[in-house]
Amino acid sequence: MNTIRHIAWSNNKKNKTRSVLIILSIFLSTALLSLICTFAYGLIKMQKQNASANYGSHYGMCRAVTQQQLREMERHGEFARLGLMASVGMISHEEARVSFTMADKNTLDMSNISGSLKEGAFPKEAGEIAAQQEFFESLGYKEAAVGDTVELKYRRDMQHKFEKREFTISGILQPAKAGTGKASYAVYASQEFFDNQFEPQERRWSVLFQLTDSVEITYDNAEEVIFEILAKCGIDKKYVIVNSMYLMWLLDPGYETILISIVIAAVVIILSVIVIYNIFQVGIVQNIKEYGKIRALGATKKQMRRLIRLEGLFLAAYGIPAGTAAGYVIAWASFEWIIQKGKEIGSMEQAGVGIFSVPVLLGAAVLALFTVLLALRRPMKIVSSISPIEALRYQDGAGGKKQGIRKGKAAVTVWSLAAANISGSRKRTVSTILTMGLSCVLFVVLANYIGNIDADYDARRQIEHGQFLVSLDYAMNDKAYPENNLDEILKNNPLNKEFIEKARAIPGVTDVQTRNILFLTDKNGRRNTICVLNEEDFQTHKSYGSRSGTFDYYDQNSIYFGWSHFLEENGFALDQQVAMEVFNGVEKCELNSMIKGAFGSMDTEWVITQELYETLNLSGHASAGWVWIDCDKKDVTDVRKELTALLDGMEHVEMDVFEDVKRNSELQTPMMRLGCYVFLGIIGLIGFMNLANTMIINIITKKQEYGILQAVGMTNRQLNASLQLQGLIFTAGTVFVALLTGLPAGYGVFLYCKENSFFGVNVYHVPVVEIVCMTAAVALLQLILSYILSRNLKKESLVERIRYQE
């Protein structure tokens, strides 16, 4: 056993070039696997850890819960925790929307409201309140502090008048995020205050809940289980809101992330196996006589397999630990960068997570070891089946009838010499080109997606026209504040003709476009919205992916659903006749139409065309829901100031700016590109190891031949040119394979991304810049490799090269 181990160690030391290439390949493969595993682990851990911060830690919420239903919920053992929340009335405020709410400790914790407390405490006594400092300042209390008394206009419901009432400040909340349009404040009261204002039979709560561990619940059956439990408490599912985003990360172990990581890891493993196998295979061919001698001395098949396995494991002992460490460092740096960029883009704060995990890194190392062992299976089989006699008689290139046979030429040129060397080992050449080509195919495929991302297009999906979008900010079923509902807002629409004329009169404004919105009630009493599309916008939205059905702008009997994915879920089907009552703020009319299609995504539940809208014969009352305002880029800052001033104090509106939206889109694109290109860069280096191995072996096996040719007159310049030509042939073959396979596959990926409305994908163009950069990178690497190999070859004298024996 010690002899076999010693021979394996000696073989690795003797074949330094092969050993270095294999170690580098194992290092890069392990680094990638470690990067993939650590990154997937970090993403899942981050989402799980931040799920409660982003979405609250409640499984769901029940609305309009009565005293009796609450008792039933408290009686059932499936609930681990219940949190009560209720509206305690209304506070009068001329310039802002104010929600006045009671929330108990469980609710404060489960909805993360408790973390918004800046100083003091949440109310406990009947006369205490907590709110933002800005709320008190807006009412004239500039230096409001905990313990101060403030006077507010309060009423418990719509049936009572506002009355002045004194409250004591128990706590100050964190400042509200600044926004455009009317301010919004949250004010909290105590449970005792709520009990004093409402009789038991009048009380209605919103109840947040968590389930016990004894409940068998998964993400797939979450809604079914929750609805079933609440039905036992007498609560209808239409009053239940499931916190699906939180449950997804609490109950679903990130299957999608895991699946994507497995697919990527499989690609890395397959490519690495091919590269490591090819390098080992060439080494075996070079040392086949030595293996024959070992067999002739009595080594068994099992010992020969062990010899090859040990050679690989000794090399893996260098590459795997170093690759694991390098992969983790890259993953950690990338993860921190992405989190930082995510904070710049998104509104949700992400708590940092530690992504170091010994089991994950060990798992990556085991995968790398599995990759090495898999690559060694074929070489082990070959060596163990070697016949000692055949091995001792073996001559490289004599293994086949056609291998090694060259046609004579009257004159040997640099090109013919390079072509002869390439064609002399066709199997090795094809394998190298295919391996390099595979990594470049992946590059071309992803470049067809990444290279076609258009930040302008993505921003235009959100702001369709102009530089500014002013839109209605409305609710649909706000029973506590019905004035916030769309039907009430439309009665005195802030986006009326007067506003539009004022916007048009702003210096620098070049165009103003509007789109109407209508309120509807269907036969089941459901309250929804309809937007009215003109022909241009209809055709634009029709071109987006994920739509279903047929679209005819001039069909005046057609209505379209806004979200194709949710068509059946909402109880509708294509070619179904629907009857609705439509309201524009002044008049109501009946609308009977057939569902002909469904858009991929819209801002409203339903869509009708301008053609159909005009047949409804509604009055000229303004029912604009969106107003787009355009100007020259140089005037954006000035127009923005004027628009902000115009919207100041205006209720139920919000403004978005194209440049801000575009900036967010542009921030996301480099993140995606960096991740893809780093991954592909490492994949490319793994493939390049195979190219390096092939060229090195070609030089080693032809060293004597090069010596003889130089002895009879071939110059160093011609030798360099021959080696460079060999590298360029490999480059040309690699690029040919990449383009032949990658472009059709990449176009298919593009179509899939467009159909499923992936970020920024719209118009296809061949990623010429990316392909040119890839070709230049491959060519540059092989030129550098050829130059280095040529220098090393010329260090030996002609006599040494001529006398060289493999």
Main features:
six-stranded mixed beta barrel, 806 residues, 53% helix, elongated, alpha+beta, 20 strands
Describe the structure.
By secondary structure, the chain is an alpha+beta fold. It contains 26 helices and 20 strands. The strands form two sheets. Strands 1, 2, 3, 4, 5, 6, 7, 8, 9 and 10 form a ten-stranded mixed β-sheet that branches. The protein has a six-stranded mixed beta barrel with strand order 12-13-18-15-17-16. Helix 1 (2-14) crosses helix 11, helix 11 runs antiparallel to helix 12 and helix 15 packs across helix 24. The radius of gyration is 36 Å and the shape is elongated. The relative contact order is 0.11.
* Gyration radius, in Å: 36 Å
E-strand count: 20
Structural class: alpha+beta
How much of the sequence lies in strands comes to 15-25%
Tell me the distance between the termini: 28 Å
Overall 3D form: elongated
Mean pLDDT: 81
**Could you give a short account of the major beta sheet?**
10 strands, mixed
Poorly predicted residue ranges = 397-404
Helical run tally: 26
